[in-house]
Amino acid sequence: MPFNDDNSRTEIDATADLARLAAERVDAVSPDTADVFTYTVRNDETQQFHSLEKYLPNPRRQRGTTAVLDADSLNLLLSKVQQLDALGFADRADNRVTAILNYEGWGDHRIALHLKHSREWQHWAQLDGEFLAQAKFAEHLQDGLSEIYEPPAADLVEIVRKFQAKRSLSFKSARDIANGEVQFEYVEETSEAGGGTAGTIEIPQVLTLRLPIYERGERYQLSAHFMYRLGPQGIAFGYKLDRAQEVVDAAFDAEVAKITDSLPIAYGPAPEPVQPFSNER
Fold this sequence. Notes:
Pfam families: DUF2303. By secondary structure, the chain is an alpha+beta fold. Among the domains are: about 60-115 and about 255-265; about 120-240, no CATH class. The chain has helices at about 5-25, 70-80, 120-125, 135-145, 155-165, 245-255, and strands at about 35-40, 45-50, 65-70, 85-90, 95-100, 110-115, 130-135, 150, 170-175, 180-190, 195-205, 205-210, 220-230, 235-240, 265.
């Protein structure tokens, strides 16, 4: 077949035109990697989806829980984040305030304030309503002297010293006296024959305490009413805190009040984060 230059040119031109048209129809696509998934279809047709978000320089959205220990820290973090649909939950039973920053969404972006009881409060609350032996009671008073507002510390130190010095006391009776104290009559055994020296000890009926309920919190005042019990095994001492739960509730509400300017608050436990629907079996 003879060579035809016109046919050759036509084929070359056609090839060039096809290449040009193909290039014009190829558009660069840069999909959002958060919406790109790979999946494997198994024999039972179940699909497994895998997010590629971990390959991004930053997460697609904020999530997770940040823990703080006081209201000021919670307010600081709230000022740093966007709060389009934030809502707080104050849970008295758990001493916790939870700010859910995406409450209308997944509910998994949170700041949790866990209010911890102070060392001073724990010292007095742990033995509320309990009876202690003479020496243990004296030790307990001594360790808590800094929280006792009334009577004066010097008076209590003297009581503690008497209890610690006179270990072999046999208490005979107790009676209330006009100055608001309880007077105990005792005999201090001084010999195996049963002889002893009689004496009295006065203990205030009420202690006025001033102490913080929560760490880094304000001090609150409450009363501790003195208790005693005479029995065959000797005497036991104790105290009962007056309206202790009301004081704790007031302290909790005061901490919540520090947050209400930054966040609307509902009282109750925080709901769990929303769980995505899954059809995997």
